[in-house]
Amino acid sequence: MRDGKTILVVEDDADARSYFQMVVRCLGYGAAIAEDGEEALACLAANRAISLVLLDLEMPRKDGLETLREMRNTGRNQPVIMLSEAAATTNVVQAMRTGATDFLAKPIDHDHLILAIQSALEGGPRAVAPAVESHPATELEACLTESWMGKDMRATWRRVAASDLPLLIEGETGAGKEALARRIHAQSPRARKPFLKLNCAALPGELAGNELAHGGAILLDEVGDMDIRLQGKLVRVLEDDECERPGGEDRSPLDVRVMAATQCDLRKAIDAGRFRADLYYRLNVINIRVPALRERKADIPAAAEFFLRKHRTEGPSDSLLSPALRQAMLEYEWPGNLRELENMMCRLLVLQNPDEIVRQLSASAHGSLPDGVIRFQPAGAASSIGSSLGFPSLEKVNEAKRKAETEAILRALDASRWNRKQAAKILRIDYKALLYKMHKLEIDQSAGDLRTAAGGA
Fold first, then answer.
1. Same structural domain for residues 113 and 177?
2. Mean per-residue pLDDT for 232-259?
3. pTM for the full predicted model
4. Do 93 and 192 reside in the same domain of the chain?
5. Exposure string (b/e) for 304-317, b if CB count within 10 Å is 16 or more?
């Protein structure tokens, strides 16, 4: 157990609880478990070694906010990372006001969870502990934030992390801008303070998030989408180092590191009247551009293997990356960057067919097939008109789609040992949507038992 530290996982869902417990142990910490707030408080009273709490917001008996409030009222000052599917601004505001250290929205991004834990406990990832170096999350962090940097650039961004100056991170969608911002925060003197990400397209009018991140850092995500009226308020906040309290009756001093991320060209937005020049120059004190994945093709194989390990629950994954698929991935332009690559690896895990992924990459590159669409050749003869034109009948298309959906869901369920929430993550769909599809396609555990008896598909 690293440094004798224990992390308390408070989660009423058994599958999620098991996942968090696994992550905690892989990082080298002890794990304590509670199913609701009442159990959590009892565990905290009995175990003084608990150094961090992962706390679900929605729970029976005593929810996360009640539990956190009682912790703080009784003098328990362990850092708390709040977890919730309901990541509305009001929930974030309540959690941070009550004393949460960080807030992560479900479904939890694995890498963000690792960084949040390390930031809360260690002030950032360690560079030497072998248990951490061998962890796959560290491999992806390196891929996202260091492998594309030369020696001088790596030294520069560490100096950036040590400073408090505003930072503007530019790059295409899915390139890793947020991952870089979190890594910089984790390496900064503010690492033990909150890191708050705000979506500028839906930013609350009172800019309450600035106050909630007091002492820490705030990431203004897609700052180019911020309403022009809110831009003026933000300029005043940055000028005065003060922000309005909720209600707007008075102002309070602001101690926060401001970072902003954007995929758009802010200079063009200024020329078009959509972005204020004075705000641009206040944010653009330090500028880092994250290159697109096509500009750092050496990262593609390592990132692909990471995503396969991340989403596969058992068995080797490297064998799925055939030589032909590796070559196709290097030749593809990846307009969706790492996010598109992750989606592609999830499809590969479901289909278990590297040749199909090669065909999809080739078709997408030539614009002949929408991204991710699987083409099926229904068996049997078509109608005379359909046959002459080369089109299958609509009935056969629907049947082929039904079979394909059923097979994809069964493969994901098999890969997750019929853990439906993990299967939903593999398929990149909402958990309730998976339950609906399983009901519609009449998929139940007996189907999995039959596949096991037959030796799998």
1. no
2. 74
3. 0.53
4. no
5. bbbbbebbbeeeeb
